[in-house]
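Example with several molecule types.
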Amino acid sequence: MMSAMFAEFNATVENPEALRALRLEVEEFHYEYCNALDTGRLMDWPEFFTPDALYRVTGRENADAGLPVGLVYCDGRGMLRDRARAVAETQMYAPRYLLHSVSNVRVVAAAGPEIKAQANYFLYQTLVEGPTTLHQAGRYYDTFLRVDGRLLLKERQCIYDTDLIANDIVYPI
Amino acid sequence: MYSNENIIGMPGAHPKERSAELVWPPEGLQTIPDWVYTDQSIYDREMERIFHGATWNFVALEAEIENPGDFKRSYVGPTPVVVTRALDGSINVIENRCQHRGAEFCRHSRGNAKELVCPYHQWTYDLKGNLQGVPFKRGVNRAGGMPPDFRNEDHGLKKLKVAVLHGVVFATFAEEIEPIEEYLGTEMLIDFDAVFKGRKLVVLGHYRNELPGNWKLYFENLRDPYHATLLHGFLVSYGLVVAGSKTSMMVDPSGRHGSMGSARPANVTDVVDQSVAAEMRAFKDDATLEDARFLNYVPEFDSPWSVTMQTLWPNLVVQRELNTLGVRHIVPNGPHSMIMVWTMFGYEGDTEEMRQHRLRQGNLMGPAGFLGVEDNEAIRFVQEGLKRSPTDKAVVRLGGDTVGSDTTTLITESAIRAMYQQYRETMGL
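Resulting structure tokens for the full complex:
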């Protein structure tokens, strides 16, 4: 039971064949976005968003209840850049690698320059000298905007199922 | 599962997880022996004497259970309880354990119900925990069923004593305990009241994380003003707290509770001279944010402090970090782990802009916060160091022998010593 906020994402798509070509484009976006994060190019991450973008990471419990809080809540690309810089330059944390895996990519609507899409994500974390663990399982609820031929995120809500977070989340999802 | 146990060795891999000789080192309060963080028998004694003893434990905010029938799963120490708003409006805290076979019957984090039903055999309780119905109590066709002397009144859910103060709900297993205002004390009520008194809270959301460290380390971290300018590069880089900031570390007379306050300097260069700056590695006098709204402080409290962090023994942290507000409920989870349940809130009457501001500022704290991540990482490092090395004690000598409040300097561990003074008494150590 997801709140009304995501109702249009979660309904069955009536015309998937009409959106098939866009799905390829959205998949390519995900792969480039994840590649930037997985290779540690933190400062490139905000550039996948529009200047007025909203980026939120929150639990499914909050999304279901329509509660607005975010573990990460960035309102505008300025805040995304500030976060990227804070993580890269000011924060102390144990060294780690992260790998994103994105699947079940669905384009649910397209109107003019705007595309709404949804996907499942899995985030694997490897701490130095430790095993690889599944750190997060969740879903992206995305609104893309086509700007000068290129897709940018106008809104990305990362809604995780992983209710009990293992200590912390350092890097963007 | 989540804990680092399964990364750096199975439980029991390290000698200090087994019982040590429990004699406090002769140096007294200037040292803390590792076994208070690692020993199972100490943990067991803490559950009995502290969490199940004469302490008021945080369980909920009233705003989480506003309407009759609302309920919330919660914990007193590690023990699962259910907090309910009964149909008569009263708040009840009952053990989440069916009196029949012991099932932890309430599985939803929160919800609304007319009664509580254990799914195993459908024993039914009212919202105050009184046993209402036992299916087939008189058997079927005069066979089976409960003996005649079985009385529902004798088999209600275990009820805890409840206290509500300015919308904050506490519970205790103790039969005899002072009223909540006395328990917290006048010194602690100053910062507590600034956040809660006369305010109607609006819940903004929840999060939970497992922190692979002993529960006491979290309390100590918030009684340790020394770490603020050293661990937290973000605070220092952007001039929120620097060595030389106006600060206060208050402890109540019992030593149990603490409140750390700091006032954000209007002009950082006024309080930081070159020699101090050199000791704060993160200090840069030219750091700026692209979105400066993030660090705005909208004055809204009757308090000289722009930040207060209260540690209310044994399981509550009240966070007022500029305009981002929340409570952190600490659930001990064995000697080497704790679970932290966060509830973030604003106030009724907040404008949409103020609500957005609180949400934006939330990036400072929590399991993905600029500061929150660092505390969690540091606590994990400490637990691993304590557990894995043969060295057996920590040093808390900053500020010398003083015990209790210190309102003159950040560079003190006086409040940690006060916590251990009362801890040793309660624990008989």
